[in-house]
Amino acid sequence: MKICVLPGDGIGPEITAEAVRVLKAVDSRFEVEEALIGGCAVDASGDPYPESTRKLAREADAILLGAVGGPRWDSAPRGQRPESGLLAIRKDLCLFANLRPAVLYPELAESSTLKPEVVAGLDILIVRELTGDIYFGQPRGIETRTIDGKRQRFGFNTMHYSEAEIVRIGRVAFEAARKRDKNVCSVDKMNVLETTQLWRDVMTELSNEYPDVVLTHMLVDNAAMQLVRAPKQFDVIVTGNMFGDILSDEASMLTGSIGMLPSASLNEQGKGLYEPSHGSAPDIAGKDIANPLAAILSASMMLRYTFSLQAEADRIENAVRKVLAQGYRTADIYGPGTKKTGTRAMGDAVLAAL
Ligand code: IPM
Ligand code: MG
Q: How confident is the model at residue 245, as a pLDDT?
């Protein structure tokens, strides 16, 4: 049971350290090896996804990632930006299925910016396609061209999906819905974009194989609106890479804090990269105030999806519920009457609750 740990940048190292402590506490058989990804890898080697990291990631059974990025690297050429490392590892390991659950813990209902009655009991799973779409489509670039008689810069990207790519992610969504409330909402922009017309057509055809699951369709602008108007109407949302990026950030905030949300990125063999949905938060890095719960819950998803250790995964989730019930709160979810807790102390509390 080999785990490759990629702490990354910003708060990444602090939060993954807590997740690793929890993993080792639930099962002593885990072998953990660390490597660089993102900005720290650029600093060390000029490459955000160095060969040594690639080797370790390929050999491991699962990967735990903290976060990548920071303002220091924002002006670097695209290939040397931390985000390119993340995109490269997703593509390299064919991690096409990104599962982003948005679950509201009852204790945190007050932390949401939405009214408690709108979000109470919220439990959504966003299934985001992760290795296609406009994120990876060619051609792409910024060039100087003559347009309307004027030399000027011109930026372009290409959105595309093959039928097979849509079927592959569609199956993940339908299968997941079977274990939940049996509703899939497919999100597209078929009124404007041909790629997503195909997306809708393929999802509709595929739904014939899942008669026990109800498939609905929604345009992405409407979905963005419905997520804040009446989020509990959703069970599983399936969508492409770019729409999924945007909607998953939106959904995360319904739950009070993006600091609570784990994610899994899986390939066809069930190998997975597990990471919090939040970013590297450079402004709070190194201060022992970041919320490690998303990283800890990502470790729990790893046990569930890659190692099929359901009881151990439940133990971690129950421990997280327990520390919330005990009133422990990092700054992002702190409120009157609760105990303000640092990163390390939150890890301690989860370990004690295990
Ligand atoms: C995410 C992030 C990444 C993405 C960035 C960091 C490249 O926003 O995982 O949602 O856009 O996929
Ligand atoms: Mg994002």
A: 95
What residue spans define the domains of the chain?
1-96+267-354, 102-260
Answer whether 1-96+267-354 and 102-260 agree in fold: yes
DSSP H or E stretch at residue 343:
helix 343-353
CATH architecture of 1-96+267-354: 3-Layer(aba) Sandwich (3.40)
Strands (E), 94-182: 97-103, 123-129, 141-147, 150-156
Ligand 1 atom closest to residue 275's alpha carbon, by position in its atom list: 9
What is the token pair recorded at 259? Answer: 């600091």
Give residues whose Cβ lies within 5 Å of ion ligand 2.
245
Q: How far is the CA of 250 from the centre of ligand 2 (A)?
A: 10
8-state DSSP, 326: T
CATH classification code of 102-260: 3.40.718.10
Mean pLDDT, rounded, of the chain: 96
Which ranges constitute the DSSP H helices of the chain? 12-26, 39-45, 51-59, 82-92, 116-119, 163-178, 194-207, 220-229, 241-254, 293-305, 310-325, 343-353
User: Contact, 63 vs 272, CB < 8 A?
Assistant: yes
Task: Give the side-chain half-sphere CA count within 13 A for 122.
Answer: 32
Q: What is the pLDDT of residues 235-265, one digit of tens each?
A: 999 999 999 999 998 998 898 788 889 999 9
- Ligand 1 near 43 CB (within 6 A): no
